[in-house]
Amino acid sequence: MKNYYSIKCQFLAYSFMISLCLQNCTHSTSLQSIEDSQANTQQLILIGKTLVSKQGHKVSLIQEQRKLQASVIENLPQGFSRSYLAPVIVNPVLNLSLASVNNTEWQKSHTHIINDQVYITRLGLLGGGKRGEETKKIQYPLHEAVIKWDKNQIQQLLNSDIDINLKNEEGDTFLHLAIKQIKILLNKRLAELGIHIIDIENMDRTSLQYLSIEAIKKDYVQEVADLLLPLQEKLALDLNACNNKRKTPLHIASGQGHKELVKLLLQLGADTHKKNKDDNTPLHLAAAYGYPSIVKLLIKKGADINAKNTDDDTPLHLAAAYGYPSIVKLLIKKGADINAKNTDDDTPLHLAAVYGYPSIVKLLIKKGADINAKDKDDDTPLHLAAAYGYPSIVKLLIEKGADVNAKGEDGQSPLHLAAGRGHINVIELLLEKGANINIKEKGGGLPVHFAAVNGNLEVLKLLLQKGADINAKTKEGPSLLGFSAAFGHLEIVDFLLEKGAEIHDGYCTGIYEAAACGHLEIVKLLLKRGLDVNAKDKNGWTLLHWATQEGQVEMVGLLLARGADIHAQNIEGSSALHITSQGWHTEIVKLLLDKGADVNVKNKSGVVPLHAASEGGNIETIKLLLERVAEVNANEETGYTPLDCATQKGHTEVAKLLLEKGADIHVKDEVSQSALHWAVLKGRVGVVKLLLEQGADIQAKNIDGETSFHWACQKGHLEVAKLLIQNGADINAKDKYGKTPIDIARQKKYKALEEMLLGTIS
């Protein structure tokens, strides 16, 4: 759920038509006045000590040469380089047109007014830079006056001709800022009294404290009203202006709890249906931030009580989620849809349950909320209350008819969720109310499995005490012991073993995963309690296989010390040495070889550890295997060599090492493909280059009469094709079907490759 707060929209006012005269500038720098007779001059306004245009911009006196011109009589101090500051005296009585003096070095320079200073910069000299660019990001004068809460200056500006709806960089008008500033001033005043604005809603309306606070608030609001009412009469004020977050002043006032400001804005005609960037209306914000009096005002003025934001939350969703029962009651009374669903298919009851508000849950049920409504995960409010551990809400829901054994999309019941998160009070309550202790989710998991996975011993004890099966398994095989071992819960493993849990439970992968994860103490305990160190899972993997695959050096050492069979093979005939050679675990490879592992052992497919290492690309492991006399040209059952493995995977350095150690570059597999065929097939440019340098036969053909060049065209490898041509590939070679490489490129529609080949022929 999103947090909806922040409001900026437009309201700015000013104008102050004054033309001016600059006199007696010090440091011999002056601006000369000329009669106001030129056609395209721009009138300026004096705001405090700052010159602004009628549009509200601080003025660069040379913004555009034809619109506003200035002459600078230069007599600057020695050493002046890029800029110079000089005081200027402004006479607000006279009109002034500023004209340039031609043929001076400063004709194109920029002059900015900052406070009471003339700022001259040479950024525009000789045409460089941007004419009239502002020296820094600024607020408009009216915005600045509001931020300072200078009421005299604000009034002066509002009485002028300036556009009151100008926006700052955040899109705020002066009215946005005024509302924010009132909040700051009010909070500061209340803080001095030790009060937070949200507390006001819960105060005794007849107390002296409440009445005093209301008086303070009304004083501030009256100040804003005094500013706005005259503007509204002029029809100049845009009450519904939106800032960059699409918030209107009414959004800001509603979300910040300014009841009096909300009342004022509504009286002036503010639109209650406007939505911000999250599609929240002012009513959404008032409901979310807990302002029932504002909710009443907005509803009275016709606010859409069932409006939805981008998450499809209604004001009732937000009031329920943020825990405001009085607002929930009010919204329902005024016709809010009690079973409305958001984008997650959550009803207000779901949200009250998940965030733990029993009074709101009770209220919603009383008013007719669907107690077994399901969200997009098919979870009911009871699922959520159980998952987040709210026993009072769980009890209330069940007593009002919630299905205690309802299943979510994944088949999990409220008891599964409570067990998984360790909410023992909720578990006891669910069991007391008839929850099925042996209910299964889609994977066959029981609530007790969830407790084991999450390592909650007390919950597990409770469930076993209530009749859960200590040896129950999921569809995939793991038992409680397996889950506990896999997740490293030593205390639970010890407890289960004490209670007689079966260690030899067939294909319990969890125990093997304990070895893979390096849970030394758990494996030691299991071995001590009778686990066979050479036990195999359903795929024939021993603890040693699992530990070597994950690079668990200490675990491998432990298992070997406890008598693990170093030659044990899985159902594919692979030993632990096969498994670890494919990874990056050279230290384990060395350990296994030192303990007597056969360096040239073959699995059922004829693969030796060097095949696995060459495919994996760990050059250090390959060096070690070769040092231990691994057969460099070993063939697996399809004739595939370690060099073929390396070339197909693109391991150039490995291929180079194998060739240096005697790998046969010309050997072919069962379909007569060489290492060059494989490298080209996979587009391995670096390996192709290496093989050609080492004398690979570029014209060699496979059983279909295809050269490596045919394969380059078959796969569209343009760079490889270029390399083969450069090294003498026969562009006209035909396969057994009579097709040349260019025929294949054309058939495959590799246009760039075809054009390259045609260019070669011509």
Automatic annotation (TrEMBL):
Record keywords: ANK repeat, Repeat
Pfam families: Ank (PF00023), Ank_2 (PF12796)
Protein name as it appears in the record: Uncharacterized protein
Coiled-coil region list: none
ANK repeat coordinates: 245-277, 278-310, 311-343, 344-376, 377-409, 410-442, 443-475, 476-504, 509-538, 539-571, 572-604, 605-637, 638-670, 671-703, 704-736
Organism from which the protein derives: Amoebophilus asiaticus (strain 5a2)
Keyword Repeat: yes
PANTHER family, per database record: ANKYRIN REPEAT DOMAIN-CONTAINING PROTEIN 39-RELATED (PTHR24171)
Highest taxon of source: Bacteria
Upper lineage: Bacteria, Pseudomonadati, Bacteroidota, Cytophagia, Cytophagales
Keyword Cell membrane assigned: no
